[in-house]
Design a protein that fits this description.
- The protein is an alpha/beta fold and about 280 residues long.
- The chain folds into two domains: about 240 residues, 2-enoyl-CoA Hydratase, Chain A, domain 1 (Alpha-Beta Complex); about 30 residues, no CATH class.
- Helices cover about 40% and strands about 15% of the residues.
- The chain has eleven helices and seven strands.
- It has a seven-stranded mixed β-sheet, with helices on both faces.
- Helix 3 links the parallel strand 3 and strand 4.
- The chain is globular.
- The termini are far apart.
């Protein structure tokens, strides 16, 4: 009976849009959106290329309270331009993180949660997007000295490119089975290395390499959860309460480089071998 009640009450996090996802994490009626669509903030570059823009440029920023503690939630809309970041969206994220840093300097313990559904930098905006992503990286590193920065990759766009580095800089990372995390997206790898190396249409293979279950088994993320709004919220709260980790994953470069040096690149590595490698066994 309990299982039936759970299934009846379960609400998909993935099926929500960026605004709904962000709002779902806050205490009831405790949040407000910064630079909402009525502010009319959008990329000046998309219209010039006959691409229909979006008034919030695909990035939603909300500030409020989670468990009565101040927090900012930044949510990327994966359905707009593949969640890609340009000048405006990147500036919104970096600005929100920098304001959280300012809060902490003023003894307001603001945490940050990043809901990442993004392919990385927006190709139409090139260096402008890259510069914004670099500012995001810098802000995450500074903010995590004060408070944990929590990333959530739920699906179905995944998190790739420069924003996968942002994910790697987070204090804690949460993924679902549907989420994916990688530096380069499947299409990019296939284009550069060929279909024999990486078939972007082979979905089971792609998820076996970059999916949430694999990333968790390899120790590259902290939590692997079902696509359930309440479960994800509770996991976010748990990491907020846990505080800053003793060791940030991104500082363990020596450990991860030692694993890469063990790789035999003459043959394609299997997902099970990746897990063994990260768990301390020779692949």
């Amino acid at each position: 009976m309990a299982d039936i009640d759970y299934l009846l009450n379960k609400q998909s996090f993935i099926e929500m849009d960026a605004r709904e996802r962000a709002k779902s994490l806050f205490d009831l009626n405790s949040c407000k959106e910064l630079l909402d669509p009525f502010a009319g903030v959008m990329s000046p570059w998309l219209l010039r290329q006959n691409i229909v823009p979006q008034a919030d440029d695909g990035v939603v920023v909300m500030k409020g309270f989670i468990e009565q503690q101040p927090a900012v939630v930044i949510s990327v809309e994966g359905s707009f331009q593949g969640g890609s970041l340009g000048e405006v969206g990147g500036a919104k994220i970096a600005g929100a993180l920098e304001l959280a840093i300012e809060d902490n300097c003023n003894h307001i313990p603001t945490r940050a949660i990043l809901l990442l559904e993004t392919g990385g930098v927006r190709l139409q905006e090139a260096n402008l997007g890259l510069a914004a992503i670099a500012e995001i990286h810098s802000a995450i590193v500074e903010l995590r000295h004060y408070q944990p920065v929590i990333g959530v990759i739920a699906g179905s766009v995944g998190c790739f490119g420069g924003m996968s580095i942002a994910a790697g800089l987070c204090s804690y990372l949460i993924m679902t089975q549907e989420g994916r995390l990688g530096l380069n997206g499947p299409q990019v790898i296939e284009q550069e290395a060929g279909i024999d190396e990486y078939n972007a249409k082979d979905r089971p293979f792609i998820w076996s390499i970059t999916g949430g279950e694999q990333r968790f088994a390899s120790g590259l993320i902290d939590a692997y959860v079902e696509d359930d709004r309440e479960l994800i919220k509770q996991k976010v709260i748990a990491y907020i309460q846990q505080g800053i980790p003793q060791v940030q994953r991104s500082t363990q470069s020596t450990f991860y480089l030692s694993k890469l040096f063990q790789l035999d690149t003459s043959d394609q590595i299997l997902p099970v071998d990746v897990r063994k490698l990260y768990q301390g066994e020779q692949a």
